């Protein structure tokens, strides 16, 4: 099932729409993001090696957050450049550390008015069912829009516990 991501109320999105589909199979989470509209106004990161890279969320990036049964969560950053990152947290923005997982294979496709990113990420062994699906979209004019399934805070906060709005079994 394709789900709409919504821009945070403080984000300018100018007619873009963003949908995502998430499927869980064994120890993997498959993600398909589709951005539609004036995608030519988006500042896309340059192609890069498929390497772990910090601070991807500062530019156009697609993300997933997965609750773990110990009360923590994992965060995945998937750049259209091919770079990626994964982190583990002990709790809300606490105890962050690199999450040692295999590199996801990120595939992108473009067409007029459409951009798609597909990736499979390795889930932690203690993955729960709560998932947050998000994106940061930067425009050429420097504006940044924050997209998510839910925005429970007056400021964009993908780590907020209520942002894990989807159950993926």
- What's the total count of β strands? 12
The stretches of 5 or more residues where confidence is low (pLDDT under 50) are: none
Beta-strand fraction estimate: over 45%
What is the gyration radius calculated from CA atoms? 15 Å
Shape by Cα distribution: globular
Number of domains: 1
Number of helices: 0
Class of secondary structure makeup: mainly beta
- Supply the CATH class: Mainly Beta
Based on the coordinates given, report the CATH architecture. Answer: Sandwich
SSE order and pairing:
Layout: E1 3-7, E2 17-25, E3 28-36, E4 61-68, E5 73-78, E6 84-89, E7 97-98, E8 106-111, E9 114-122, E10 127-138, E11 144-148, E12 166-167
Antiparallel strand pairs: 1-2, 1-11, 2-3, 3-9, 4-5, 4-10, 5-6, 6-7, 8-9, 10-11, 10-12
Would you mind describing this structure in some detail?
The chain has 169 residues and is an all-beta fold. The chain has strands at residues 3-7, 17-25, 28-36, 61-68, 73-78, 84-89, 97-98, 106-111, 114-122, 127-138, 144-148, 166-167. The protein has one domain: Sandwich (Immunoglobulin-like), CATH 2.60.40. Strands 1, 2, 3, 4, 5, 6, 7, 8, 9, 10, 11 and 12 form a twelve-stranded antiparallel sheet that branches. A hairpin with a 2-residue loop joins strand 8 and strand 9 (114-122). The chain is globular. 33% of the residues are buried.
């Amino acid at each position: 099932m394709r789900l709409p991501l919504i821009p945070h109320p403080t984000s300018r999105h100018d007619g873009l729409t963003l949908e995502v589909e998430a499927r869980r199979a064994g120890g993997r989470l498959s993600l398909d993001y589709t951005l539609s509209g004036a995608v030519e106004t988006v500042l896309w990161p340059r192609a890069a090696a498929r390497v772990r890279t910090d601070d991807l969320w500062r530019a156009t990036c697609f993300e997933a957050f997965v609750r773990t049964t110990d009360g923590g969560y994992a965060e995945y950053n998937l750049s259209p450049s091919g770079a990626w990152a994964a982190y583990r947290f002990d709790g809300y923005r606490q105890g962050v550390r690199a999450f040692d997982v295999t590199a996801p294979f990120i595939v992108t496709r473009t067409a007029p008015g459409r951009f798609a990113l597909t990736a499979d990420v390795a889930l932690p062994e203690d993955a729960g069912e709560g998932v947050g699906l998000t994106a940061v979209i930067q425009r050429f004019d420097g504006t940044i829009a924050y997209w998510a399934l839910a925005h429970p805070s007056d400021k964009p906060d993908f780590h907020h516990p209520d942002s894990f709005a989807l159950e993926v079994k």
